[in-house]
Design a protein that fits this description.
With 427 residues, the chain is α/β, with parallel strands linked by helices. It has helices spanning 16-21, 61-75, 80-83, 93-103, 115-129, 135-154, 164-175, 191-202, 215-224, 235-238, 258-267, 303-366, 372-397, 404-417, and strands at 3-10, 41-48, 52-59, 88-91, 183-187, 207-212, 228-231, 244-247, 273-277, 294-298. The chain has three domains: 3-160, Glutamyl-tRNA reductase, N-terminal domain (Beta Polymerase, domain 2), CATH 3.30.460; 164-306, Rossmann fold (3-Layer(aba) Sandwich); 332-417, no CATH class. Helix 4 packs across helix 12 (303-366).
Length: 427
């Protein structure tokens, strides 16, 4: 039976410098897909966000682990030796439980945040496009989505959820006593930027500038929040106007470095600038912290706001985990049924073959007396008889043999009892 393996790193196991080195954001298209379906890996899905990079795979457990690490590291221009110390490896039901927990946003930096489910759905769509999804990953992801839906509807884990963007704006509000005199710039126009724009507007920001590689996206976002839009090549023409800069692009390398920031600071006459970089890989070079009147925070610096959020939601977490336990048990039962399927198919096929052989002999003996109505009646009788004969052994196989050894014994006993391992003798 093929095994489910999940290999990943996240905000708990690796700092942002490691996460950005091994991000797979740009390795999820059919043309750039990082995890080849060859050797021990027959299904794969890649989830790469600012807080986690995870590879879900189906294959031979130990062999799949080594193959995934090699392919992942290679896609990032690194070695498996450099990657391995930072990852966690989960197999079987541990991997299933982890995936359901992630989808339900119980493993997020911000407990209950809504973005992770959307990111997981995007990852699933990418895998479908890359044709790396088979029966197990397909079933597992749909189960993860329905589990997350139950958690959101049956618990208050996601009530007033605090997003990373919210935490970023809360940090800015602590830095500036009066947000109404501040100008803010968003670099990037994706979901993170949209949430940040909403929170900045709610905080009463004086001016909002949206900068993005695709100008139409910047214009759309700026229009919604009464701001201004600029293309990315105008970033440094407008940067001097911003007191707060929140970056969340998908750039491979930092956009803002000490050398291109110094002229901006000169123009501002060294008025303080606060950068909040919530992108992975980072948009802002950490070296700018060495410049006077520049203050940089990255996604790992938002932990205080995040931890307060977690404390407020802990009462609902146990309810959510009970739902996950129930859904994991349901998936395990379905997965176990796959192990029974070959024996059930062989059993039904063997008895249907017997029935067809006996029907042919009976029709031959009846000769002219076997009119169409008689043949139909015989077929119906035999079909009903086969179903009744198969009912008890199939019920025995499905009788909840949760222990692996007991299930194996039940399958072996059924196959020997009905001679399913022996070639069929039509005589």
């Amino acid at each position: 039976m093929k095994n489910i393996t999940l290999i990943g790193l996240n905000h708990r196991t690796a700092d942002i410098a490691v996460r950005e080195r091994f991000a797979l954001t740009h390795a999820c298209t059919p043309e750039t897909w990082a995890i080849p379906l060859e050797g021990p890996v027959c299904e794969a899905l890649i989830l790469s966000t600012c807080n986690r990079v995870e590879v879900l795979a189906v294959g031979a457990a130990e062999d799949a682990r080594a193959a995934i690490l090699r392919a992942w590291a290679s896609a990032c221009g690194q070695t498996a030796t450099a990657l391995e110390p930072h990852v966690y490896v989960l197999n079987g039901q541990e991997a299933v439980r982890h995936l359901f927990t992630v989808a339900s946003s119980l493993d997020s930096m911000v407990l209950g945040e809504p973005q992770i489910l959307g990111q997981m759905k995007d990852a699933y769509r990418d895998a479908v496009k890359a044709r790396t999804v088979g029966i197990l990953v397909n079933r597992l992801l749909h189960k993860a989505f329905s589990t997350a839906k139950r958690v959101r509807s049956e618990t208050a884990v996601a009530a007033n959820a605090v997003s990373i963007s919210y935490a970023a704006v809360e940090l800015a509000k602590r830095i500036f006593d009066n947000m109404r005199v501040c100008r803010a710039m968003l670099v990037g126009a994706g979901e993170m930027a949209e949430l940040a724009a909403a929170h900045l507007t709610q905080a009463g920001i004086r001016q909002l500038i949206v900068v993005n590689r695709t100008l139409s996206h910047a214009e759309e976002l700026a229009q919604r929040f009464h701001g201004e839009a600029e293309p990315l090549d105008r970033l440094f023409d407008r940067l001097a106007e911003a007191d707060i800069v929140i970056t969340s692009t998908g750039a491979h390398e930092p956009l803002i470095r000490p050398d291109n920031l110094r002229p901006v600071l000169h123009t501002r006459r060294n008025q303080p600038m606060f950068f909040i970089d919530i992108a992975v890989p980072r948009d802002v070079d950490p070296a700018i912290n060495a410049l006077d009147n520049v203050y940089l925070y990255d996604i790992d610096d938002l932990k205080e706001t995040v931890e307060n959020n977690i404390r407020q939601r802990q009462d609902e977490v146990q309810k959510a985990r009970a739902i996950i336990d129930e859904e994991c048990a349901g998936f395990a039962a379905w997965q176990d049924s796959l192990k029974l399927q070959p024996t059930i198919v062989d059993l039904i096929r063997r008895h249907e073959t017997y029935a067809q052989e006996e029907l042919a002999r009976t029709i031959k003996r009846l000769g002219d007396r076997a009119d169409a109505e008689t043949v139909d009646a015989l077929k119906a009788m035999l079909a009903s008889l086969v179903r009744k004969i198969d009912h008890d052994p199939i019920a025995f196989l499905k009788a909840g043999h949760h222990d692996e050894d007991a299930r194996t014994q039940a399958i072996d006993m059924t196959r020997r009892l009905f001679a399913l391992n022996e070639p069929h003798d039509a005589s």
